[in-house]
Specification:
Number of strands: 22
CATH architecture of the largest domain: Sandwich
Number of helices: 1
CATH class of the largest domain: Mainly Beta
Helix content: under 10%
CATH superfamily of the largest domain: Spermadhesin, CUB domain
CATH topology of the largest domain: Jelly Rolls
Structural class: mainly beta
Number of domains: 2
Oligomer: single chain
Order of helices and strands: EEEEEEEEHEEEEEEEEEEEEEE
Length: 349
């Protein structure tokens, strides 16, 4: 259902040695882990790597400081396989499972996802400073007791982060998910949705600000895109979405985007540009990755002036045909109309 965003940032996300306490041993169930004492470590199923017992219930509660998020990276995962005849959303309801929850205001819980079987889950990140991981196992049949290759359980690394796993751009000092990309600091690079190695967090808003020198524009090219949502890609359709603006406020001529179809090449009108990613509390995806570059506008006189409609592809599922009609104007006053997203691409000079 969700595809894995395989990126190379795991090594970059490692904390420099000696900066904090790290534990690699099994800890007690129903433990509370605070960032005041540990910034990262390991949690496992009881007895790991030996097989866990039936009828086991175990939880780990993570409590971070203000502006911190909790990131969980599963390194090993081998639980009882669910029945094959069940639908995907029912599979983990009738077997051993691991569930991850956002902890809101220190008490109420919001489910992020359930995991079961032997596929290592994508990494997850909390929506705020609290997260809980719960493991439960059911009964074991007589045949399972005699298996020579018993299931072992799981092992996961946790880390309290304040940068949401984002390594490009300059995060604003208030610790929010606001990142500045200044052409005087880096003329090109790659940007990501929060928690690039896995599912982006729920209930999160991230703003990417681009500041070029006078006469510069910014170009953004997406190379991966998986943002949960359906047309019209806004809060009214309960969608997560990505929006663009040439102004500090909304820019109605550029549509919002969601689903699996990445925006085409995006160019700003001027040296200022803003990109905003919003996720709700419903479902999530693996996000996006895009390359950006600041360009001399005198050499690249191209800007999107109006967009009518939107193109959308929902994975491999068939749906009604949609087309994206873009009207562009260059500084040479040459008007072009591009018809994109249909069965063919047409350009009319």
């Amino acid at each position: 259902m969700r595809s894995l965003l395989g990126l190379f940032l795991l090594a970059a996300a490692a904390t420099p040695g000696g900066a904090s306490l790290t534990h690699s041993v099994s800890r007690r169930c129903n433990d509370t882990i605070s960032s005041a004492y540990e910034s990262e470590g390991v949690v496992t199923s009881p007895g790991f790597p030996s097989r866990y017992d039936p009828h086991t219930s175990c939880s780990f509660t993570f409590v971070g400081a203000r502006h911190q998020r909790v990131r969980i990276l599963f390194t090993e995962f081998s639980l009882k396989e669910p029945p094959e005849h069940l639908r995907p959303h029912e599979r983990c309801l009738h077997t051993d499972w691991v569930a991850v929850y956002n902890v809101i205001n220190g008490s109420s819980k919001q489910e992020i996802d359930h995991f079961c079987g032997t596929t290592v889950p994508n990494s997850v990140m909390s929506a705020s400073s609290g997260l809980q991981l719960v493991f439960k196992s059911g009964s074991r049949s007589p045949m399972e007791k005699d298996l020579q290759n018993p299931r072992m359980g799981f092992s996961a690394r946790f880390k309290f982060v304040s940068d949401l796993g984002l390594k490009s751009g300059r995060q604003m000092s208030d610790g929010s998910c606001h990142f500045v990309f200044n052409s005087t600091e880096a003329r090109n690079g790659t940007l990501y949705s929060p928690n690039p190695e896995g599912f982006y967090p729920l209930d999160t808003t991230c703003v990417y600000f681009f500041y070029g020198l006078p006469g510069e524009i910014v170009r953004i090219i997406f190379k991966y895109f998986d943002v949960e949502g359906v047309l019209p890609c806004n809060s009214e359709s309960d969608s997560d979405y990505l929006e663009f603006s040439n102004f500090p406020s909304a820019d109605r001529k550029i549509p919002t985007f969601c689903g699996y179809m990445a925006p085409n090449v995006i160019h700003s009108d001027s040296s200022y540009f803003r990109m905003t990613f919003r996720s709700n509390s419903k479902f999530g995806g693996t996000g996006f990755a895009a390359d950006y570059q600041f360009l001399d506008n005198s050499r690249h006189p191209f800007a999107i002036k109006r967009v009518i409609g939107a193109a959308f592809v929902n994975g491999g599922q068939h749906s009604r045909a949609n087309c994206l009609l873009v009207v562009t104007v260059t500084s040479l006053l040459i008007v072009k109309t591009l018809q994109l997203g249909c069965s063919s691409i047409k350009e009319i000079a």
